[in-house]
Design brief:
This protein is an alpha/beta fold. It has 44 helices and 25 strands. Strands 1, 2, 3, 4, 5, 6 and 7 form a seven-stranded mixed beta sheet that branches. The chain is globular, with a radius of gyration of 36 Å. 42% of the residues are buried.
């Protein structure tokens, strides 16, 4: 049976294939194929998924790569006149050695050889012995053999094939089953070449899609992804059966020729050995060296765990110490059995080195807080006994998967953690992990609709305007999920899943079925590869022993595999290093306040500080407070009247789709304990910490145990909740009901509690994570309360490059009575500077737009400056000087006057230099109003007097010219630098600091943008700070506006009809009151009034709006 040897899949051939690995392997199985190859473009990103899928169907997997080969991989200097040609070449791993070599070829091509595309040359492969164990196919029409033969370069073709034969194990000429004139011509020439030189040949399909019916969808996918039309280049590039191949090639070759090509595909499959990629072989730990004197790694871990016991718990009672000692004695045997020993030693080594370098680390992330051993190793800062955290949520005897601990670290020092990993475990053994972004349904609807609307040969030409595309896209709901880092993110529901549930969508589908077909064929497909935000692989030997390397967008090394392939399938160790800005804010605050992290150790800090709760949480004053800045979190803190740490932990956990509904019950039960009703009395003890609501995964585990479940089934339930495996949850219901029935629960109670348990399977954090994040939130609130000015200065520094956030922080400073002053060239540092004696914060120089680090360093190094002239002379940077004048950083009462003085200083004034001779002939004096006859005494001319008058006339003209040049210089300077003085402060500081044009409006409005519900109308008082004018398909002008508001910069749209009506008001710098509607954090303008008009109306009414 024919073997597919040339196919491309979505993840490995991004924006070029719409064929998934699952579809390809299923096709092979359904058509009786015993083997198939994967040959993505210059990539091996799909090879793990491919092998897994082939194993499911008992199909031999052949790992390959369609590489781009060039004459010289080191040449990277294409010009308009010459571009080094790239050629395709299929490489298939024949042996285990060939598989390893293919990884190296792929890695080199995607790193050292990368130039527009991943490239390598045959010379490099041969010289490094990388062709051993590899079969080579000559590829498609973009292959060198096809190009040479179709261009009549027969000698070059012979030399090329000879090089291949000297490099690889086995070389096969490739014919393709495509029924086009160009391919037929190439096939004929390649076949004849193979016969003349006694070379084997085979037949491939170069599949980029599942079937021919998808060719238009594929073309649309390529067009919206890469902006190119495909023409005939993908004709017949789909998965074909053996019968289809005979049919396609019947006009080109005899049946015997076709048969022989098919037999060669089978021969290739037969000579390929079963390659072991390391699938499901268990965990592959890096090499861990332990200190001398310990017989085993287990003994060493035990030593490390108990080494800090007195330091951690020496201040406690003997009873509390014994509880923790017993907890450790319970945890350690479990860690040994599940093979976490070396992993924990790794974590200890990393944490030790990070703390040695004073890199701020978070308290914990995920379920790591549930493990007391990690607290003892200083990996976390959470005493899991104190916070009643269930260890089995982190590890238990029923768990088979690798431990997975995530680090929160200083955002600005995240790279140092990667460097530490490299130093500890070897640079070649460490690499970040890849992640793949997909084409969302909304984007597919808009982009495909746009192409269909604009292309003249489209059946829907000029029938799908922007408004319709936008309306349809907005009909697609989003669901909130957790990403790999446990963070909330929104994903579009697929059109194919909701089409029959939405009547409006069905109406549009019936009118434009092709539009919807294309969308449903490509939605959710990978569209780009990037670097995982935190995941870093650590291997015992070089990473390329396990998977290929590539560059990210910034030319940093990473692996081609995504997290689950690397970790779950290959068993490789991953560390997540997530940069957390909050840690930098805290670190900066502590340094300015002159205290240390030890001074605010969360295990000894007063967690019952009434001032913290009264000034921050209870009133929702949570600007800058970790996890509590969103409108929803603020509202929840206020509703709960948050007055203890458990409230903060609960808000952190409950502010999620799956648990938010129960939060009002929490508030009711907390604030009115006398009226509490519980489903069953058993819950009073089980759910006491959350005022009798089911909130944490650990509570669900407790309930399973309460129902009599053994530990391994409890873990199954936990994983079912975490992975949302509802089918597993439903399978556990019978035993769950039986266990609780025996404890006196009735049927109604069982139904209700099970529904709550199912809710857990949709969305919920574990309590360990909520505790760690709740405590970090408390620390930020503590610092904001007790080190207020330092905290706010640090917060401003962290937001200085975020225009939309900085004004919110400055408004909060005003609420706190802290003055934020413009920068000062003699006083400001790079960051915002706290001046506690004045209750003032000085703007940081690096926060001034347009100033880079080098010029800021220069300003600081050269001060103090005695005068403006002194500053100009020593800084000598025109752009910086103008920017600093506008920002108010150079003290003056009149910025415009100072700018004019600076402009004046830039004009080079030159004195007139008298000439020493009278021009000849004398006729040249006439333009100067001089007549030589007036200077003649007889025949003799008085040249001295003539020269003097000539110089006077010439000097007069010169002075006038200089005057005109000066006027021109000043006019050009004013036009370029001195316009719109009212916007200078915003343009340089991203906000109106000393003269807020909207300050009077605060008296008359209580509108809070965050509190406006999606779809509701509201009035914004604002300043237009940027306008981008556009035209719609009908040529009507509309605009995107950036609006400065007390809530930050809000992006808005004003459509053509409103733009015409309010054109006089829509100007940069105008203060306005705008009525509009909020849609997904965007503002759509409906009506506009000049701000002063609105303000006067409000004054007359005297009421808040």
């Amino acid at each position: 049976m024919f073997t597919l040897l040339h196919i491309h899949t979505t993840k490995g051939s991004l924006l070029d294939s719409i064929l998934t690995v699952e579809e390809a392997v299923k096709f092979a199985s359904e058509n009786g194929m015993k083997a198939m190859a994967l040959t993505d473009h210059g990539s091996m990103a799909s090879f793990v998924d491919f092998v897994k899928e082939c194993n499911k169907y008992n199909i031999k997997s052949i790992i390959g790569n369609e590489i781009y080969e060039v004459d010289d991989m080191w040449e990277k200097a294409d010009t308009k006149e010459y571009t080094q040609p790239r050629y395709h070449l299929i490489l298939l791993a024949r042996t285990q050695e060939g598989y390893k070599n293919l990884i190296k070829i792929t890695s080199v091509s995607r790193t050292e050889g990368l130039y527009k595309k991943p490239r390598i040359d045959i010379k490099y492969i041969k010289e490094n012995g990388l062709g051993r164990g590899i079969i080579c196919l000559t590829a498609c029409q973009a292959g060198r053999l096809s190009r040479y033969l179709t261009n009549g370069k027969y000698d070059e073709a012979e030399q090329f094939v000879s090089r291949l034969q000297n490099t690889f194990d086995y070389v096969v000429c490739e014919l393709q089953s495509h029924n086009t004139e160009d391919q037929a011509n190439a096939n004929k020439l390649i076949y004849e070449f193979s016969q003349k030189h006694n070379l084997p040949y085979t037949i491939t399909t170069d599949a980029h899609m599942l079937s021919d019916s998808l060719k238009d969808s594929h073309a649309m996918f390529v067009e919206i992804g890469e902006g190119r039309e495909v023409g005939e280049s993908y004709t017949d590039c789909y998965l074909q059966t053996e019968d289809e191949i005979y049919e396609k090639l019947s006009d080109q070759f005899s049946e015997e020729v076709i048969k022989k090509g098919i037999e060669e595909s089978i021969n290739i499959a037969d000579i390929v050995e079963n390659v072991d990629i390391g699938l499901n072989k268990g965990n592959i730990m890096p090499k861990i060296n332990i200190e001398n004197g310990y017989d085993s790694h287990e003994d060493y871990l035990r030593y490390l765990v108990f080494k800090t016991f007195d330091e951690k718990f020496g201040h406690m009672s003997k009873e509390d110490q014994e509880i923790r000692r017993q907890r450790l004695e319970t945890e350690l045997p479990v860690l040994y059995v599940v093979d976490y020993t070396d992993y924990f030693i790794m974590l200890y080594m990393l944490a030790k080195e990070a703390r040695k370098r004073h890199i701020p680390l978070g308290y914990s992330r995920g379920s790591g807080a549930n493990c007391l051993c990690l607290f003892m190793l200083n990996v976390t800062q959470i005493d899991s006994v104190r916070w009643d955290l269930d260890f089995s949520r982190f590890a238990n005897l029923g768990r088979k998967s690798m431990a997975d601990f995530d680090w929160d670290i200083s955002k600005r020092r995240r790279k140092e953690m990667v460097e530490i990993s490299e130093e500890l475990f070897g640079k070649e053994n460490v690499a970040p992990i890849a992640t793949f972004n997909t084409l969302s349904t909304k984007v597919a609807i808009r982009d495909i609709g746009k192409v269909l609307d604009e292309k003249e040969d489209s059946p829907y030409y000029k029938q799908i305007p922007y408004k319709l595309r936008d309306e349809v896209a907005k009909m697609i709901p989003t669901i909130k999920t957790l990403n790999d880092l446990g963070e909330e993110e929104e994903k579009d529901v697929l059109l194919k899943d909701i089409l029959n549930k939405n009547e409006k969508l069905k109406e549009v589908h019936d009118k434009f079925p092709l539009w919807f077909k294309y969308v449903m064929d490509v939605e959710g497909l990978p569209k780009s590869m990037g670097r995982h935000a935190a995941g870093t692989l650590i291997t015992p030997t070089p990473v390329t022993d396990y998977c290929p390397l590539c560059y990210d967008s910034e030319k940093n090394i990473m692996i081609e595999l995504e997290m689950h392939n690397a970790m779950d399938d290959l068993g490789l160790v991953k560390m997540d290093y997530l940069g957390l800005e909050t840690l930098d804010i805290i670190d900066d605050t502590l340094k300015m306040a002159g205290i240390t992290w030890e001074d605010v150790d969360i295990n000894h800090l007063d967690l019952n500080d009434k001032a913290v709760f009264d000034t921050v949480y209870k009133n929702g004053n949570t600007v800058g407070i970790f996890q509590m800045e969103s409108a929803e979190a603020r509202r929840m803190c206020i509703e709960a009247k948050a007055d203890n740490v458990e409230d903060i932990i609960v808000v952190n956990a409950a502010n999620r789709p799956g648990t938010k509904e129960s939060f009002p019950t929490y508030c009711q039960n907390k604030l009115h304990p006398e009226s509490v009703e519980v489903l069953h009395d058993d819950l009073r003890e089980l759910f006491g910490k959350t005022h009798f609501i089911l909130l944490y995964q650990e509570q669900a585990l407790q309930l399973f145990r309460h129902a009599g479940f053994p530990e391994d089934q409890v873990d199954n339930a936990r994983r079912a909740m975490g992975k949302k495996i509802k089918a597993v949850m439903e399978g556990l219901e019978t035993d769950f009901r039986k266990g609780l029935t025996e404890k006196g629960w009735n049927n109604e109670q069982l139904i209700e509690i099970w529904q709550l348990m199912l809710k857990q399977s949709e969305y919920c954090f574990n309590r360990g994570h909520a505790v760690a994040y709740g405590l970090l939130s408390y620390l930020t609130a503590y610092l904001k309360t007790h080190c207020t000015i330092y905290f706010m200065a640090s917060l401003l520094t962290s937001k200085s490059d975020k225009v939309q956030k900085i004004s919110i922080v400055i408004n909060d400073c005003k609420r706190l009575g802290i003055k934020v002053s413009p920068p000062n060239v003699n006083k400001s540092d790079m960051k915002f500077t706290a001046l506690p004696e004045k209750n003032e914060i000085l703007f940081g120089l690096l926060a001034v737009k347009g100033l880079g680090e080098s010029i800021v360093y220069k300003i600081i190094e050269n001060r103090p400056y005695q005068s403006m002239n002194d500053f100009v002379e020593r800084v000598a940077d025109k752009t910086a000087i103008i920017t600093l004048i506008k920002a108010g950083a150079i003290p003056t009462k009149d910025k415009m006057l100072l700018l004019k003085k600076y402009a004046n200083s830039l004009f080079e004034k030159k004195d007139y230099k008298p000439v020493t001779t009278v021009p000849s002939p004398y006729s040249k004096l006439i333009p100067f109003g001089l007549d030589v006859e007036d200077y003649r005494d007889g025949k003799k001319v008085d040249k001295d007097r003539l020269l003097a008058d000539y110089n006077k006339a010439k000097e007069k003209i010169y002075i006038e010219e200089q005057s005109q040049k000066y006027k021109k210089h000043m006019m050009e300077f004013k036009e370029k630098y001195a316009k719109d003085e009212y916007m200078w402060e915003f343009d340089t500081l991203s906000m109106f600091l000393t003269n807020d044009p909207l300050k009077d409006a605060y008296k008359f409005t209580k509108t809070d943008w965050d509190m406006v519900e999606d779809g509701d109308k509201t009035t914004l008082f604002c300043v237009i700070v940027d306008i981008k004018r556009k035209k719609d398909k009908n040529g009507n002008q509309f605009a995107y506006l950036d609006l400065y508001t007390p809530f930050g910069i809000i992006e808005s749209t004003i459509w053509s009809s409103q733009l015409k009506q309010f054109s006089d008001d829509v100007k940069k710098g105008n203060c306005l009151a705008i009525l509009g509607r909020k849609r997904e954090e965007h503002f759509f303008v409906e009506k506009i009034k000049p701000y002063n008009t609105w303000l006067e109306q409000m004054r007359k009414k005297g009421v808040a709006v």
